[in-house]
Design brief:
About 50% of the residues lie in helices and about 5% in strands. By secondary structure, the chain is mostly helical.
């Protein structure tokens, strides 16, 4: 009986499913006032964005607009982030900046990402957990790409890190 409990505990430890995401969703803050500079640096610090990429993100025009009909959106062609003030937080930037990062991928890299993401979803416990919490990720690979960085950051599966230009350093070959 004692060995059964011991081995059962070991089995649970190695097969345990994650119960939380590294970067949980921040609720809207209707009292929030923040400058674009402060918002960017909060994002850089929170998501450990390498300093060599900061100037790239400083080129993004951030428009805070209380009248937007949606929380936030990225216009990749003009590198413009539109965001309601209550959603000016690092997680929203992570999601929206991932859209811009995805737009920088070559078509063959986008195809490779889809394959790598599908494979990682079969084996990576944290990615499986994210998917179980945000099942709309299955509707669009671009949204899946954004949500992986938004909720997992640098804790994402290693094989996906090369598909986040200007956000993560590439994985060594």
């Amino acid at each position: 009986m004692m060995f059964s409990n011991f081995f059962g505990g070991i089995n649970k430890m190695f097969n345990a499913q994650p119960m939380e995401l590294p970067y949980p969703e921040e609720p809207p803050d209707y009292t929030r006032t923040v400058t674009g500079f402060d918002l960017l640096h909060s994002f850089f610090d929170h998501y450990f964005v390498p300093e060599i990429y900061w100037n790239y993100w400083r080129q993004v025009t951030i428009i805070v607009d209380r009248k937007l009909p949606y929380p936030a959106g990225m216009v990749s062609e003009t590198k413009t982030l539109l965001v309601k003030p209550e959603y000016t937080n690092p997680g929203i930037l992570a999601h929206e900046f991932s859209h811009l990062s995805y737009s920088e991928l070559k078509p063959e890299e986008k195809a490779s990402y889809t394959t790598e993401y599908t494979n990682a979803l079969k084996t990576d416990a944290l990615l499986k957990y994210l998917y179980s919490q945000k099942q709309y990720m299955s509707t669009n690979i671009i949204e899946a790409h954004a949500e992986v960085f938004r909720y997992l950051g640098n804790k994402m599966p290693a094989q996906l890190k090369n598909y986040y230009p200007e956000l993560l350093l590439p994985s060594p070959a």
